[in-house]
C-alpha cells in the first residue's frame, strides 16, 4: 500500500484507482483540538490543489487541499458527530475523503513517506 | 487571535516565559510578546479544566501602572481619570475595582481597562490601572497628554500579573492567603504569599470566580509554581482564555470593541454609573448620553449558530431574506456550550433575543439565532 504526502500536510493512501485523503499526525498536532470538519459532496470533482474540505480547531479554520485530481467517491461522515477522531487517529479512523484519481501521474509529484518526514523535521 | 508581531522588533518576554517553555507550551507572538497559546494537553482540556477546577493564566503582558496625585487626594486623581473614562472613580471605595473604557472625543473606545483605588496604607491619591498589552503604549501616551498638573502616570513594567480562575480558585487561594479568599467580587487586597508581596483582586476574564494577582516580576515564577503545586491548578494558555471569555460574553479589545464602537453599542452601559450618565464630563459624553436616551442604531449581540460549524470574526450577518445587517466580531467553538458561539454587531431592529439571522461562512448562509449572553453562566463571587 502506497502513501504519498503534500507539503500542506495531507496524505493520500492509494487503494487501487482511488486514494484515502486525510491530514497527517503532524498537522493534527499543530491544529490542536478539531471541533468541526466540513466535507465535500460525494460526486464532486476536484483538481489537485483545490480546497476539498475544511477542518476547524478551537482557534481557527484551515483548508484541506486535494492532493490529486479526481472525483470524490466517499466521505467520512463519522467526523460530523466526532471530529475529535482527526486528533485521535488521523491516518486511520480520522480520514476525510476518498478520491478516484483521474491522473495517476500526479502521484509522482507528491512526497514519499521518507521525504515527508524529512520535510517535517526541517520545519 | 495571534496578533502579528512587528518584524523589526524582537518579541518581549514576560517574567514567566521560562516557566511556559519548561511546561512544554506552544509559544506564539501576541501583542509583541512571546506567549503560551496552549500547553501540551490542548485548548479543550484547558478550557474544561478551568470551568471544573482552577486555571492559572500568565497575563503579565498587560500594562500595569499607577496614577498618582501629588496632593495625596483621591478626589484629585479620580477627577483626572474621570476626564478620560465614563466610570465613577470618585466614589470608589479603597481597594475597590471597576471596569471602564478610555474614550475618544467621538465616544469610540480607545481601550478598555481596570481601575482600582489603591487601599494600601500611605497610598492615598493612587489609582492602579491595568490596560491591554497591545494598547499600552498608546494608552500611556494618551493619558499622560491629558493629565493635569499634580497628577503623574507611573508605569510598572517590572510587575508580573497572573489570573487564577475557576470554581476551585477560592479554595486554592484560601490555602495560600485566607484574607484574599474572603474578598468580594471586584475588591482587592495586599497580602504576602510564601513571603511574596501580592496585590490580589477578585476578578477575571473567564466568567468564573477567581483572582488576578500582581507581584514583582522577580517573584512571579515562585508564585506561579506555588499555585501550580496545588493539584487543582493547571496552566492555561491564550487559546482557552479566548474561548472562556467568549462564552462569558466578554469583549476583546480590537475585535468586539474599538474606536468605531461606543460603550452603549457594545452593551457596556452597566460600566457607566448613574452619576456619570447624568453628569457626563467624559470624552464622547454627548454621544453616549444620546444613545442611552434614544438607543444606538446597532448593538452587540450574542449569536448561536445552528449545527456545528463555527462562524468566526468577519463573517457577515444577514437576515434570512439576504439583507446585510452586521458582522461577527468574535466567534468560535464553545467547549462548555459544546457548540459554536459568536458575538457581533447588528442593526437595532434585528437585535432581539430569538431573532432568526444568517451568518455567512465560506459563502454559505448558516442559520443562527440572536442569543442572550453569557453563553456559559457567570459564576462570580457575589
Shape descriptor of chain B reads globular
Helix proportion range of chain A: 10-25%
Instruction: Name the CATH architecture of chain A.
Output: Beta Barrel
What is the H-and-E element order of chain A?
EEEHEEEEEHHEH
State the fourth-level CATH superfamily of the domain at 17-61 and 158-247 in chain B: Probable tRNA modification gtpase trme, domain 1
Please report the number of helical segments of chain A: 4
Largest beta-sheet characterization of chain A: 6 strands, antiparallel
Q: Please mark out the parts of chain A with pLDDT under 50 across 5 or more consecutive residues, or reply none.
A: none
Describe the global form of chain A. Answer: globular
Structural class of chain B: alpha+beta
Task: Provide tags for this entry.
heterodimer, A: 123 residues, alpha+beta, OB fold (Dihydrolipoamide Acetyltransferase, E2P), 6-stranded antiparallel sheet, 3-stranded antiparallel sheet, 20% helix, B: 382 residues, Gyrase A, domain 2, Elongation Factor Tu (Ef-tu), domain 3, 6-stranded antiparallel β-barrel, 22% helix, 32% strand, disordered N terminus
Tell me the layout of helices and strands.
The complex is a heterodimer of chains A (123) and B (382).
Chain A: E1 2-5, E2 10-15, E3 18-23, H1 25-31, E4 34-38, E5 45-46, E6 51-57, E7 61-65, E8 70-75, H2 78-81, H3 85-88, E9 97-101, H4 113-122
Chain B: H1 17-22, E1 26-30, E2 33-38, H2 43-52, E3 54-58, E4 63-69, H3 74-82, E5 97-103, E6 109-117, E7 126-131, H4 136-146, E8 151-155, E9 159-165, H5 169-176, H6 178-181, E10 188-193, E11 196-201, E12 210-216, H7 220-228, E13 233-235, H8 238-247, H9 274-279, H10 285-294, E14 298-305, E15 316-318, E16 324-334, E17 339-347, E18 356-361, E19 364-371
Helix pairs in contact in B: 2-8
Amino acid at each position: 500500500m502506497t502513501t504519498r504526502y503534500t507539503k500542506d500536510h495531507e496524505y493520500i493512501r492509494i487503494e487501487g484507482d482511488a486514494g484515502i485523503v486525510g491530514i497527517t499526525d503532524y498537522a493534527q498536532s499543530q491544529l490542536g483540538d478539531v471541533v468541526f470538519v466540513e466535507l465535500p459532496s460525494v460526486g464532486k470533482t476536484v483538481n489537485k490543489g483545490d480546497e476539498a474540505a475544511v477542518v476547524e480547531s478551537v482557534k481557527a479554520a484551515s483548508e484541506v487541499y486535494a492532493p490529486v485530481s479526481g472525483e470524490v467517491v466517499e466521505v467520512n461522515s463519522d467526523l460530523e458527530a466526532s471530529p475529535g477522531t482527526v486528533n485521535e487517529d488521523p491516518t486511520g479512523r480520522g480520514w476525510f475523503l476518498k478520491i478516484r484519481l483521474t491522473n495517476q501521474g500526479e502521484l509522482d509529484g507528491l512526497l514519499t513517506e521518507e521525504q515527508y518526514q524529512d520535510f517535517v523535521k526541517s520545519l | 487571535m495571534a496578533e502579528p508581531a512587528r518584524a523589526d522588533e524582537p518579541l518581549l518576554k514576560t517574567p514567566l516565559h521560562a516557566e511556559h517553555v519548561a511546561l512544554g507550551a506552544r509559544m506564539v507572538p501576541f501583542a509583541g510578546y512571546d506567549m503560551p497559546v496552549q500547553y501540551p494537553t490542548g485548548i479543550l482540556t484547558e478550557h474544561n479544566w478551568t470551568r471544573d477546577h482552577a486555571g492559572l493564566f500568565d497575563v503579565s503582558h498587560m500594562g500595569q501602572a499607577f496614577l498618582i496625585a501629588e496632593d495625596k487626594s483621591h478626589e484629585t486623581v479620580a477627577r483626572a481619570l474621570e476626564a478620560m473614562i465614563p466610570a465613577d472613580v470618585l466614589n470608589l471605595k479603597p481597594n475597590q475595582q471597576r471596569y471602564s473604557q478610555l474614550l475618544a472625543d467621538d465616544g469610540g473606545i480607545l481601550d478598555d481597562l481596570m481601575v482600582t483605588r489603591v487601599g494600601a496604607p500611605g497610598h492615598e491619591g493612587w489609582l492602579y490601572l491595568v490596560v491591554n498589552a497591545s494598547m499600552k503604549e498608546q494608552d500611556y501616551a494618551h493619558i499622560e497628554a491629558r493629565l493635569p498638573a499634580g497628577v503623574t502616570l507611573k508605569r510598572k513594567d517590572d510587575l508580573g500579573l497572573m489570573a487564577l480562575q475557576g470554581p476551585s480558585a477560592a479554595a486554592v487561594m484560601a490555602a495560600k492567603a485566607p484574607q484574599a479568599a474572603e474578598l468580594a467580587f471586584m475588591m482587592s487586597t495586599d497580602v504576602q504569599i510564601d513571603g511574596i508581596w501580592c496585590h490580589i483582586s477578585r476578578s477575571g476574564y473567564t466568567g468564573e470566580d477567581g483572582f488576578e494577582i500582581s507581584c514583582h516580576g522577580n517573584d512571579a515564577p515562585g508564585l506561579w509554581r506555588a499555585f501550580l503545586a496545588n493539584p487543582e491548578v493547571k496552566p492555561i494558555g491564550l487559546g482557552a482564555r479566548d474561548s472562556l471569555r467568549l462564552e462569558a460574553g466578554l469583549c476583546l479589545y480590537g475585535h468586539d470593541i474599538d474606536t468605531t464602537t461606543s460603550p452603549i453599542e457594545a452593551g457596556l452601559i452597566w460600566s457607566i454609573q448613574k452619576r456619570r450618565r447624568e453628569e457626563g464630563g467624559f470624552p464622547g459624553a454627548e454621544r453616549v448620553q444620546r444613545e442611552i436616551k434614544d438607543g444606538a442604531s446597532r448593538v452587540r449581540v450574542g449569536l448561536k449558530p445552528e449545527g456545528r460549524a463555527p462562524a468566526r470574526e468577519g463573517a457577515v450577518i444577514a437576515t434570512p431574506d439576504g439583507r446585510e445587517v452586521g458582522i461577527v466580531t468574535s466567534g468560535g467553538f464553545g467547549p462548555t456550550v459544546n457548540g459554536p458561539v459568536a458575538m457581533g454587531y447588528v442593526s437595532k431592529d434585528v437585535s432581539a433575543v430569538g431573532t432568526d439571522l444568517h451568518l455567512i461562512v465560506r459563502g454559505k448562509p448558516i442559520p443562527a439565532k440572536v442569543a442572550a449572553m453569557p453563553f456559559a453562566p457567570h459564576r462570580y463571587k457575589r
